[in-house]
Each structure stands twice: as structure tokens, then as C-alpha cells.
Amino acid sequence: MNYKYYKIARDKAWQTLIETNVNSLPINLKDVFSYYNINLKTFINSSDEAFIKNNTVYFNKSYNIKRVRFTLAHELGHILLKHENLTHTVHTYKNIEEFQANIFARGLLMPAIVLKEINCIEAQDIANICNVSLQTAQYRAERMQELLRRNKFKLSPLERQVHSNFKDFINSNKI
Ligand SMILES: [Zn+2]
Fold first, then answer.
1. Ligand 1 centre and the CA of 70: distance in Å?
2. Model pLDDT for residues 116-129, shown as the tens digit of each residue
3. Which numeric CATH code is attached to 3-166?
4. How far does residue 171's CA lie from ligand 1's centre (Å)?
5. Could you tell me the distance, in angstroms and rounded to a whole number, from the CA of residue 144 to the centre of ligand 1?
6. pLDDT surpassing 90 at residue 153
7. Do the Cβ atoms of 132 and 69 come closer than 8 Å?
8. Residue 34, CB half-sphere, CA atoms under 13 Å: how many?
């Protein structure tokens, strides 16, 4: 997948952490959504997991909250990245916008620099601290290994700012 699109989504996640001033894990999605004046509403009686309509993100109450959190962050990614076709409800097909929304959600809920600083690199630890599913955490854990191997941290001023904003959290959560 084109690095340009990856970078846009990754940077947007850092920008979102910075401008919403959410500086601890697990990320408080209610605070993030309210910062952007996006409503959150629940529904049941459908197999859909979530969808966007009129500046409101609807999510299915019957799904596990750990899974729903990633979906909500994914939907927020579509909105903040100004993707077209926001009314879509199916996220299974592979395209640039789906790819970007997932990169955004991963970066928002599981910021790599914070996980590194508190030495939280195992999937189960990531799942616990970020309040996400083990499957989602597994993807982050694999990516963490690559980042650690290449020591690819704090190259962006955005990530350096996130690191600085999370200082208190990091100091009180070092493993
Ligand atoms: Zn999507």
C-alpha cells in the first residue's frame, strides 16, 4: 500500500491525540468524539457493527466493547480524513479509505511511542492497557516488533509531542 496514504492516516492519529489533549490510556473515545462534536448513539436489532449518519456514529450495543472501540476509532478516521461515501456500512472490502481508517484507529487507540515507553509490547498487555480486543492488539504487537527492530520512534515532531503529552501517564505506568 502506498506509503503516502499510510503517512497521512498515521499523522492524523497523532494530530488527533494532540488536539483533543487525551493523554492517558485507554483512550477515552467519548472525550475525543465530543471534542469534534460528533454524537455517539447505540442501536440493536441489526448485524451491522457501526455506521455514520448526519454527524452521528451509531454502534451496535450487542458487540463486545473492546471490539466496538476499534470500530468507533475507525469510523472517526473516515470522518477526520474526510473520506467520501461515509454512509457505507460494510468495511470488509479492501480500499485506500479502509486501509487509512484502520491505520488511524490503531494509532489513536494504541500509540506506539507510549507503549514503547511503558514497555508494553506483548499483545495481551496491549489489549489490557488500551482496552481493545486481543486480535487488534496482536496487529499492534507485530508492528511494535518491527518498530523496535528498526528503532523508528520520535522521528516526527508529532510523535515527539504525543510523547511529551503522555509524560505523566508514562511515568506512572512504567512496567
Ligand atoms: Zn470503514
1. 11
2. 999 999 999 999 99
3. 1.10.10.2910
4. 35
5. 23
6. yes
7. yes
8. 6
Residue 101 has pLDDT above 80, yes or no: yes
Q: If you measure from the C-alpha of residue 167 to the centroid of ligand 1, how many angstroms do you get, rounded to a whole number? A: 32
Domain residue ranges of the chain, discontinuous segments joined by +: 3-166
pLDDT at 88: 57
CA of 106 relative to ligand 1 center, distance in Å: 13
Nearest to 173 by CA among 123, 95, 119: 119
Which one, of 147, 80, 74, 129, lies nearest residue 106 by Cα?
74
Ligand 1 geometric centre to CA of 68 (Å): 13
Cβ atoms of 72 and 59 closer than 8 Å: yes
DSSP secondary structure string, 89-146? ----S--HHHHHHHHHHHHHHS-HHHHHHTT--SHHHHHHHHT--HHHHHHHHHHHHH
Q: Identify the pLDDT of residue 146.
A: 94
The pTM of the full predicted model, rounded to 2 decimals, is 0.92
Q: pLDDT class for 45, splitting at 50, 70, 90?
A: confident
For the residues 104-133, what does the mean pLDDT come to?
A: 97
The single-letter DSSP state of residue 57 is E
